[in-house]
Structures are given as C-alpha cells and as structure tokens.
Amino acid sequence: MSAGPTDAHLLERAPFLLRDWLTHALPEPLRWFANTLIAIAAILAIFGTLFALLTLVERKVLGRVQNRPGPNRTGWFGILQPVADGIKMLTKEDIVPRAADPLLHFLAPVALLGFSVLTFAVIPYGRDLVAVRLDAGVLYFFAAGSATELSIFMAGWSSNNKYALVAAMRALAQLISYELPLLLSAVPVVLAAGTLSAPDIVESQGGFTWGFVPHWHVFTPWGAAAFLVFFISALSESNRSPFDLPEAESELIAGHLTEYSGFKYALFFMAEYFGMCSLCGMAVTLFLGGWQAPLAALEFIPSYAWFALKLCALLLVFIWIRATLPRLRMDQLTRFAWKFLVPLALVNLAASAFWSLSFGWAGPMQALRWAIGIALAVGPFVLLGRRLGAGIGPRTYRYA
Amino acid sequence: MSAALAIVALATLGSAAAAMLGRSLLRSIFMLAVSWAGVAAFYMWAGAQFVAFAQVLIYLGAISMVALFAVLLTRQSRDEASPPPAALRRAILAVVAAAGVAAVLLWAVAHSPLAVSGSLAPATSVRQLGFDLMGRHAAALLVVGVLLTIALLGAVVLAADGAQERPGDEP
Amino acid sequence: MNALQLCLAFSSLLFAVGLAGALARSNAIIVLLGLELMLNAANINFIAFWRFSPSSAPATGVIFVLFSIAVAAAEAAVGMALVIAIYRHQKTIRLPDATDLKG
C-alpha cells in the first residue's frame, strides 16, 4: 500500500486517486485499515466479475471451436448466462451424503477458495498497484498455492465415495508432480532478478534494447524455456485440460466434486478459475514483464491495462488449449512431469546461471552468448523429448 | 502483542493435541496441518516471514501430502478398532512421561535467568538471508542438498522395493 | 513472564504433545508425525531466541530453522517410505505387531 506514483499522468494514478477520494476524510490509523479493505474489495470484485465473464467466454470460445454458437439465449449474445448460472447454483439443493464427514465436507470448498484468493495478494497489477508488498512475495504465492492441494484431497476423502477418493489420489499425485517444475521454472527468474519480491521482478524487466525489444524474461533463451515449463505446469496445477484427470467428467464422474452440489459446487468452480487467474497473473509477472508496456511509445496506456491485456491473452490460450488437446493418461502425465519437465527445468537453471555470468560479454561475444544460451535451452528439450517419445508407437486397437 | 501469541499458541496446541488423541487417522493429519499452520503463524508473529512461508510450503504442501499418501497406500483410512488394554496402559504411561518432561521444561524456562534485549532483532531481508546461506553457510547448504538427494533416492528405493516380486500385490 | 519465556513455554508444551503422541500411539504414521511436532517445537525455540536475545550474528536462528525444515522434509520422506515398506511385508503399520526383522 503506497501513495502511488506522483509524477505519472492522470489515468495511471486513477486507482489511487479514487481510493484517496474515498478515504481522505478518515483519521490516519483508520485510513490505513480502510485502504486495505478497499484493496481486498477491489480484488474480489474484479476477479469475481472476471470469473463470471470467463465462464461465458469459455463456453462461447469452446462453442466456436466446435462449430456451434454456444450459449446465446439469455440476454444479448448470451451475456446474461453467468447470472442465470449463478441463480441456478444458488437455488439448487445442497446435498451432503449420509456417510460423509460433514465438517470436512463443508470446510473443503471454503478452504480451497480461501487459499486461492490469498494468492492474489502479492501479484502486482500495475505500477505500485499491489495489495501487499512482501519481501518474499513469490515464495508466499507458491506457499498459498500448495495449501490448496490439501483442500482438494479433503473434498475427495470426506465425500466417502470411491470415485471421489480415486480422483483425490490422482489429484495428489498430479499436483505434487507438477508443483516441482512450477517452482523450478520460477527459480531462474529469481536468480536473474536477484529478488523474491514480485514488484521488484517486474521492475527488473523494464527498458528496451534498440528501443523496441523489451527486456522481458521471455525474450531470453532460458526465459522462453522456463515460460514454457511454467505454463505447462500451470495448466496442470489448475486442473485444466489436457491435465484434467482429477475431475475427468467422462471417467470419474467429476472426481472429487462428485458429491458436491449447489453452492459448494459453485465455490469449487470459482476456486478453480481463481487459481487459473492467479497462476496466469504470476506467469505474466515472472516472464511477460508484468505491467510493462511492450513498446516505449505505448507507455501512455496505463500499466494496469497492460497487465489486464496480458492476463486475458494467457487465459484465452488456456481455453484454446482445452478446446484443442485430448486428455492424457495417468502414466503419461506423471512420466511427462518427472522425465521431461523436471530435468528440463533443472538444466534451465544452469542456462540461467550462465546467462547471468556472461552479462558483460559484448560485440562478437554477444553472439556467442546467444548461441550457447539457445543451445542450453533447446538441446535438452530435443534430447529429452526424443527419449520421452522412444518406444511409444501409435496405439493399435485390436478389438475396435 | 502477547495476546496474538496466546491465540496462536492455543490454536496450535489444541489442534496438535486433538490430532494426537483422534481415532481417525486422516482427521488427525488434517488437524496436524492446522497445527503446522499455527507454527507458521508464530513465525510471522516473530518477524521471520521467509521461514513462515517455507514452513507452509514444506509442511502443508509436502509433508502432509506424503503422510496422506502413506495412509492411503497402507489402507488405514478408516477408523482404528478400540485399543487393547496393553495399548491403554502404554498410553497412560506416555502421557505421564510427557507431562513430566513438560513440567521439567516449564520449570527450567520459568527459573532460568534469560537475558532479553530491549530491542528486537532486526528483520532480515531475503537478500541478506541469501547472501548468508551462500556465503558463511555454503558448506552446510551443500550438505543439506546432498542429504535431501540421498533421502529422495532412498525413499524411492524403499517404497519401490518388492513391487516387482509380487505382481499380484497391486491394489 | 516476558515474551521470550512465553514462547519457550509454548514450545515446551508443543514438544510434550508431540512426545506423548509418539510414545502413546501404535500407528507408525502418527508416531512419525509426532516426531515432526517435536522438531517444530525446537524450531520455535530457535526463532524465539533469535528474536529476543541480544545476538551478535544476525539471522543465525533463521538459517538454522531453514536447515532444520529441510532435514524434517527428508526425514518425513524416508519415514513414510519405511512405513510403506513395513506394510508390504507385515500387512500392518501398527508398531507393536511389526516385531519381525525377517521380511
């Protein structure tokens, strides 16, 4: 919570001006409290709206990909569909199975949503626009994210249903496997930026080479590889297709959500989308320059608009991937994590260290630096990828 | 200041005691997770943010998960049967022993001359912590890294052992 | 009682709870988790002494706790693997029943 940039133009300062206009009458200690409350309310309101819109956009985009119109009956182009869904969810009966553990059955969606919301606290949404400025912000993000796994298991076990339990075990295995590459692909960024604080990581990506290539981490060889690993792991961590095994609705009848109905189901749904948004936000922060503008000439557009644009682009890629790729098998899923992503992330750490060490190289050495950097990023990818695919031919269906 | 500590301590101790007393194994693990979160809250209270986040990441994200996996793989998820009399006697002895240890420790804490500085320790930045870890404590960091690698390999070997010998053993 | 003594009392009690659990329960998993509780109690002491005592070396307590957490993670991984190995051989994880050394 800071006063905001003072020398920037009006649009850049708009969120801070609005906040100060709301709280300027309060005495000093109360004002700090009110500012915090406003930050929380703003995050919840914005991401709540984004969640509602995202459910609609997802169904629309999936519909277009599958050559059908998608929801178009409620309101203009189906714009009221989220409202209708919400009313439907709220008025449905809330069923708790007799054999279930009632306390854990109730706590699981609440804890899941709570931890998902906690991750929003450290993402910098714009210049100085961050709810809590933590020295160890990135670590906080992953700590809060890892606590959500526990609540997914809680949901699966407390339902006392074999499908839910099997799905919970699948979810545990998947989340543990993919948390490792997720963390390991964030480490090179921390190494390069020399800080664990999310706003400082964004600051370190400012500036341009030759006036038009931004210094985002994704535009370095190790950064591109780390972004790829992070993005795939993020897909898996948020249980999105093609890694949606825990709730594979066609085999496990929605997995750990089997025994949930009504509003609790909606809470799970919301938590999943919140997790997706926060992981995308972290990906934008770590690799895509956060709120930095892609061109110096475009810096007149306020920083939070750039962040929102990048976030929405990543979310659309998530939906696009869901519409395109089929689901993996369980053994393929874990093999992919342990034999491909984890070694790749580890080698990438070395590539990032080399990049940091060769910072001072200039002239022809610069070309050598890029050549070695690209070799360190692409080489393991090709080698590991060939080993991963070895021995797996196309499947033959004998009885089909 | 002390009130916050008291609340955190009571929540931690209460959930830890409930976990140790509980019959249902999985409920015990969830209560222990609450207790570990309480310890993390204590670290936050004491100004050690980095340790608090590491505690949440490792205890809630890893150790409780490993424990849950162990419970599921050993098919102990349902409640234990009522304990035999021998176990009950052992439990009483254990509680007496633990109470004795607690009494001795509390007496020692209350009666030792503890020098408390007027000013609190300066909050260490993550950067300073990193330099310390890589500088003065680099050897220890290396040893811990080797230990973790060996532990990982050992755990894999131990848990995978025998899987090939008895193929009919799969659940 | 000053704040340091309160912290130490808290950690003593937590240690006692972990000790009671580790001694009383016959389930190997709970015994291991009781050990983890005792480790946590020790960590609380490190942080308390770092926070309240006039120390010369800054952040030593914090670094010690970081190492301790790493060792605890290693211990939990090996411990749970042992529990699973015992279950494979004996079909039980109740410690009083697991008295055979021969697999």
Any overview of this molecule?
The complex is a heterotrimer of chains A (about 400), B (about 170) and C (about 100). Chain A is an all-alpha fold. Chain A folds into 2 domains: about 10-85; about 90-340, no CATH class. Chain A has helices at about 10-25, 30-65, 80-90, 100-120, 135-160, 160-195, 200-205, 220-235, 260-285, 305-325, 330-355, 365-390; strands at about 210, 215. Chain A has a two-stranded antiparallel sheet. In chain A, helix 8 (about 220-235) runs parallel beside helix 12 (about 365-390). The longest helix of chain A has about 40 residues, at about 30-65. The radius of gyration of chain A is 23 Å and the shape is globular. Chain B is mainly alpha-helical. Among the domains of chain B are: about 1-80, Up-down Bundle (Four Helix Bundle (Hemerythrin (Met), subunit A)); about 125-165. In chain B, about 75% of the residues lie in helices and about 0% in strands. The model of chain B is unreliable at about 165-170 (pLDDT under 50). With about 100 residues, chain C is an all-alpha fold. Chain C has a single domain (about 5-95), classed as Helix Hairpins (Orthogonal Bundle). In chain C, helix 2 (about 30-50) packs antiparallel against helix 3 (about 60-90). At the B-C interface, helix 1, helix 2, helix 3, helix 4 and helix 5 of B face helix 1, helix 2 and helix 3 of C.
List the helices and strands and how they pair.
The complex is a heterotrimer of chains A (400), B (171) and C (103).
Chain A: H1 10-23, H2 28-65, H3 81-91, H4 102-118, H5 137-158, H6 162-193, H7 198-203, E1 208-209, E2 213-214, H8 221-237, H9 262-286, H10 303-324, H11 330-357, H12 364-389
Antiparallel strand pairs in A: 1-2
Chain B: H1 2-21, H2 25-45, H3 49-73, H4 85-111, H5 126-134, H6 138-160
Helix pairs in contact in B: 1-2, 2-3
Chain C: H1 3-24, H2 28-52, H3 60-90
Short description:
The complex is a heterotrimer of chains A (400), B (171) and C (103). Chain A is mainly alpha-helical.
Order of strands, widest sheet of chain A: 1-2
The chain pair with the largest interface is:
B-C, 85 and 72 residues
Helix content of chain C: over 70%
| End-to-end C-alpha gap of chain C | 53 Å
Instruction: Indicate the CATH architecture of chain C.
Output: Orthogonal Bundle
Q: Please compute the radius of gyration of chain C using only Cα atoms.
A: 17 Å
The count of DSSP E runs of length 2 or more, i.e. the number of strands of chain C, is 0
Q: Given the C-alpha coordinates, what overall shape of chain C results?
A: elongated
Low-confidence stretches of chain A: none
Poorly predicted ranges of chain C: none
Q: Would you report the number of β strands of chain A?
A: 2
Strand composition percent of chain A: under 5%
Identify the overall geometry of chain A.
Answer: globular
Helix content of chain A: 55-70%
Question: What is the N-to-C succession of helices and strands of chain C?
Answer: HHH
Strand content of chain C: under 5%
The tally of structural domains of chain C comes to 1
CATH topology heading of chain C: Helix Hairpins
